[in-house]
Structures are given as structure tokens and as C-alpha cells.
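quick one before i forget lol
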Amino acid sequence: MKIFAALMIALLSGLCAAQDQNQKPPQPVTRVLRCGTLINPANGQVQHNVTVTVEGERIKEVREDGPSTGGAQAIDLSDHTCLPGLVDAHTHVLLQGDITAEDYDQQLLKQSVAYRTILATRSALHALDYGFTTIRDVETEGAGYADVDLKKAINRGIIPGPRMQVATRALDVTGAYPLQGYAPDVPVPHGVQLVDGPDEGRKAVREQISFGADWIKVYVDRSYFVRPDGVLDDIPTFTMDELRAIVDEAHRQHHKVAAHAMALNGVHNAVEAGVDSIEHGDYIADADIRTMVQKGIYYVPTIYVGEYVAQGRANAGARVWLDMIKIHADTFRKALNAGVKIAFGTDVGGFDWNIDPAIEFPLMVKYGMTPAQAIRSATLSGAELLGMQNDIGTVSPGKYADIVAVKGDPLSDISLLQKIDFVMKGGEVYKSGDRK
């Protein structure tokens, strides 16, 4: 019996080995892109007649006038300008536009998290179609940890969408964030996780990270008003002890902190606490701009959304939003000239996802950037903010094959980036020509 058993084991082992040899993993698909022009966002320079060889999900080779690889799938973009997949560092896939407080209330009170998540899958597809192959989604606005599951579904190939880093629930203090204005005895949801005190802040950071947060988001100011001297002032939310505890706990666990900070005190407190990015930053004091440069804190200005919501909020009585447009433009110019690191972000979701977020590019150029600087902000700078510069941000060997293309020269006309008609993410073509 022992001999028989040994023979059977040997036979089965041989069969399994033969089966393993016959079932080799599929070879990665090789594709060759022929780009008429290729923009290098690291220096704004261009190359012409470039061949990009893609093997599987990564770039194998980039060369000028290189021959096509035999047997590879050829993609002719010889009449296009190619550039790395775009990065939007401030999105909300679980919001579909909120010009007024009523728009926001409607989504949190009348739409289930399940329904909002279904809409978010459409938002993610919009982002990819527009050429944004990577996004940082900075909180779900009352939809819990739905962004974590959306990210998982994209990573597992269940649904199409961009690479995502997510901030889950975001943090604010009691009484500072919608929904507000309801009767005290009527329980309503909030768009954030409410925390009061350093210990609650630390606990919330630990909870969010344990459930999949890549970033921690804090709302550090509210109630904006323009002083007689033209300074955009505010009421800060967190105390410095609270804010420092949140930042310390996130950094202790090797996670970064993004701060919604629009005015004098909020920006100052966030910068002093050592956050990693200032979101919006309509007004930043000169001293805080200098500190941002020294500490390497990023500025994600989201210009368009301020203009998009200004009139609606002014009609609702908050006319300060109209004044904030000019203040924001002046701040952007000062930060740019001072050498603050600027990453492209739009706050799409705060405005309708049917609007291409690339509408932000012409405003960045209008307020002082060159087209090359604007492109860098949405490629290499965005990758660096997300800590992904080894994988995305340039079209280089070894990086993910995240490549977009457009007819014409966006270095001459930045608005062309609203007409991207070729999108590749991880070696897979998601948009080609007029097909969507």
C-alpha cells in the first residue's frame, strides 16, 4: 500500500507539473504609440516623432524616430501631442454639484449612500474620459467610506476609473459644517466626522486610516468676510492643540493631511501645524506664503469652482464670494511668484461633473502661469504631492503607461486640454479618437 501511495503521489505530481507548464501566464500585450509631439512636464520641452513602447501596464521605452516593435499593436498619434495622464488633486466623486446650500442638503438628505455611490461610478468614468488618469478625492461629504470601495472596485477592474487616493470622511468641529440650521431635536447627517478635542482628533485619524483613508482632510476655517484693509478673514475651527494632534497622528502613521483653508486664520493655523497641502487658499498672508515655501507645503488653488459658485451664493446673501474671486487671483499670483509648489486641483463635484475639470487650465494661465507650468501642475507636481512620482507624472520607462493626447499644441493654447481625445491608463486604451 505504501508503494502504491508513493506511485500515485509521483504520478499526480507529474500531472500537476505538466499542467502548470501548459498553463503559463499570458504574456503582457505590447503596444507602440507614435506621437507627433511629446511634452516633458519636468522642463516644458518637447520631442517630435516619438515612439513610446508599452509592455503590459508600464512604459518600456521612449525614443525619437524609433522603429515599431514587430508584432506590437500600433497606435498612430502622429498628428497629436502626447503628454502624461493628468492628475486632479482635488475632487469629490460622491458630489454632483452644489451651487447653493439647498443642492448640498438635497444630496445628503434625499439620496442614499448607495445611490450616491452609483452616481460616483459615473463621475469616475467622466474623470477618466476627460484625461485624468489619477485623482485625489478629498472626502465623501456624508457618504462614509464609499470612496474606499470605489477605489477598490477600480483597482480590481470591476469598473473603469482613474487611480485614486481617498480622504474618506474629513474632520471638522461641532457646529461648523453642514448640515446646519435644523431644529435641535431633529437629527440630521453631517458632511464630515465631527471631532472636539485633541484626543477625539487622534481617534478619528486612527479610525479613518484603519478603514482605508490615504489622506486626512481637515476643515480649518469658516464664516468668511472681507476686512476694510482687503484681507479675507474667517473664524478658525480647530484649536491649535486639536490641529497639531491631528497632523501629528496622521504623520506618525505616514499619512498626509490636506487642509480646506480659505482665509487668514485657517491658512495660518494649518501652515503652523504642518499640513501637507492648502486647499483653495483664497487668501494667504505673505508670511504664510514664505513658510509654505520653507516647509514645502503644496497649494491646490481650485480657482474655477470659486467663480462657479460665487453668483449663486451671492444671490443667497453671501456676497463675499464675489469679492473672493479677485482676492483669490491676487493670492495665486503671489504664491506662484514666491515659488510655492502648486498642484492642479479643481473641486469638481462642487461643480457639475458634466463640466470638464480642464476648464481650470485657462484660469491658471490667466492668473500668471505659463502653459508649461500649468501642465506640470497637473502631471509631475500632482504626482509628487501624491507621492507617486516614481509611477506617474512623466512619460518615462518604468512608469505606468498613463498617456493622453490631443490635436494641436496645448503649449500655445492651453484650452485644448478640454478636448483630449485619446486616453490610455495602465496600457489600456479607454478613449480613442471620437469614440467615448
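fyi The longest strand covers residues 73-84.
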